[in-house]
Structure formats: structure tokens, C-alpha cells
Amino acid sequence: MFAPLSAFDPVAGSVVVEPEKDEPGYWSGAAGVLHDGERFWLTYRRRRPRGAEAERGWQCAVAVSDDGLRFTDVWSVHKDELGTPSMERFCLMPVSGGYRLYLSYVDPADNRWRIDALTAEHPSRFDVTRARPVLTAASTGAEGVKDPFVLRAGPVTYLFASYAAPMDRPDPGAHATADIYNVGATVHPTGLATSLDGESFTWRGSVLPVGTGWDRYQARLNSVVPVPGGGYVGFYDGSASHTENYEERCGVAVSADLFSWRRLSEYGPWVTSPYGTGSVRYLDALLHDGHWWLYYEMTRADGAHELRVHRVPVTRTGG
């Protein structure tokens, strides 16, 4: 059977995507990764500081690699193509006859985060003008929903997403910044939606609520990995308040059924950066070729964020 995965040193990872500039507010990250049996596919985001030209999440891309280390972009979208103030985590998955891409961005109509989907024969052919709504603030009863992670198990597609749950009666003015996550008016647990076709989803509500300590403001499940022998391990981002928004740290949880999750990092983050805020976030993991492949966004000494990958050999215990 598989032995537990130990905490790792994020600095030991290899840089996959660097930020545009070596300054705070310039980030490359929000990784989503899959291996389709032949190649690695990566979705990632670039961000600039507020006030900079094309500020916030201005570009998202899909890239491909033969070795999981050196990636080449095959498709990208600028935020202006969606008419949005910002984009965040995208998620790619193979489907019959092609690929489906789940997009996370601020709806220009109401300044609330939402998730849409695109389908194409190849990732280079995605057309954002054909995006279809998947989850919105209205359909989830939340103040916004974003950062999808999608997993297929049997005939069911499971979509995990961070959502904005009001702590009190919603304040319409909280959306003035087009980022409800950054104003302290809500908390941000992980919710689950399920589907039989990967397009029409039923919202099931919270599956990983916020905690009571270091993750009492946000608990965002970024990656779910089926473990041989049964069950799932999940990697999630936690923060204690809106002042730590954008600088979350990584925790671990486990589940037997994808609906109920138990924290293994209840009293503190599992992995942190040695620099600045200590942020290691948006960790997405694969089990491939006898290794854990861990892709993550981390804070650097200069305050910028970069996307790295760290490979950890799978170890086994007796039995």
C-alpha cells in the first residue's frame, strides 16, 4: 500500500513558468495539470498588480509538455476577450472526441466570479465566444464561485469550486472591487457540483468548510487524487482572513467518498514557502511514472509568485 506523502521543500522544485517581473504582484501560477496517457497538459494564469496595465488576472493559457518540465503554450486568452476585470484558475479535462476547459472569471454583468466551459477537438482550438455557463452566483446561492477542479469517477463528473458564502446579509457594495474574496464580507469554503455529462451540473453545497484556525477564512480544494487501494487525498489552500487573500498556504485533507473530507492539517499548513508570506498555493498533483508530480504557485523572496513542479518518489509500506 501507499505510504503517506511527507511535506516537501517547495524551493527544491523546478521552475515551470516565471513571473513577468521580479516584483510583488506579478504572478505566474493557478496551475491545473493532467496527463492524458501521452503528454502533460498545464493550465496557468498570469497576473499583474492592481493599477498596472492590464491589471490582475490578465492572461490564462494552456500548455503542453512531453516531460512535465518544459511546457509550450498552445492556446491563451486575454481578459478583454471575456470583457472581465480578472480571470483565475482554469481546469482542463479530456472528453469523448476532444477536451473540455472550465474557465473561472469575474462576470462583467455583476462583478461576481463564475465558471463557464468550452469544448474543442484540441486545446489549441478553444473559442471563448462559445463558452457556456456552468456555475454562477445565482445557481449556487453564493456571492461568487471560482477556481474549478474537475474529476471523473465512473459515470459522474465532480466539480469542486471555491465559493463566497456571506457571513451576514450580503452587502451589494462588497462587489465594487470585482473581487468579493478580498473584502472580508464572506468566507470561502469548497463546494461540490455533480454531473452526468460534464456540462449540466447540480450544486451539492459545501464539502470542505472553512476551519477554525489558520484556514478559518478560506479552504479551497485545488486537487483531488485517487489513491490506489481506495480513497482520495486532496490539497487545499487556507487563509485566516481576507488580509491573506492571494497569499494562501497549502493544507491536506482525505475523503472516502468525495462528499465528506477530513483535514490532516488542522493546526497549521502542510507546506509553506520560506520567503515573504510563506505562500504555497494552487497545488495540483498527479500520480505518474512512480512519482508524485506536484505543481504549485509559491511566493519568492522578491514578492513575485512563480509556478514550480516538484517530483517525489512514491513509497510503499508492507502489506
Order of helices and strands: EEEEEHEEEEHEEEEEEEEEEEEE
What shape does the CA trace take?
A: globular
Structural class: mainly beta
- As for the CATH topology, it is Tachylectin-2, Chain A
**Distance between the ends:** 6 Å
Could you walk me through the main structural features you see in this protein, from its secondary elements to its overall organization?
The structure is a single chain. This protein is an all-beta fold and 319 residues long. The protein has one domain: Glycosyl hydrolase domain, family 43 (Tachylectin-2, Chain A, 5 Propeller). The chain contains two helices and 22 strands. The chain has helices spanning 79-82, 137-140, and strands at residues 14-17, 27-35, 40-48, 56-65, 72-78, 91-95, 98-106, 113-120, 132-135, 145-153, 156-163, 165-166, 186-187, 190-195, 202-208, 218-226, 232-239, 249-255, 261-263, 280-288, 291-299, 305-313. The strands form six sheets. Strands 1-22-21-20 form a four-stranded antiparallel beta sheet, with no helix packed on it. Strands 2-3-4-5 form a four-stranded antiparallel beta sheet. Strands 6-7-8-9 form a four-stranded antiparallel beta sheet. A hairpin with a 2-residue loop joins strand 6 and strand 7. The protein is globular. This is Glycosyl hydrolases family 43.
Quick summary:
It is built from two helices and 22 strands. The chain is mainly β and 319 residues long.
Write the layout of secondary structure elements.
Blueprint: E1 14-17, E2 27-35, E3 40-48, E4 56-65, E5 72-78, H1 79-82, E6 91-95, E7 98-106, E8 113-120, E9 132-135, H2 137-140, E10 145-153, E11 156-163, E12 165-166, E13 186-187, E14 190-195, E15 202-208, E16 218-226, E17 232-239, E18 249-255, E19 261-263, E20 280-288, E21 291-299, E22 305-313
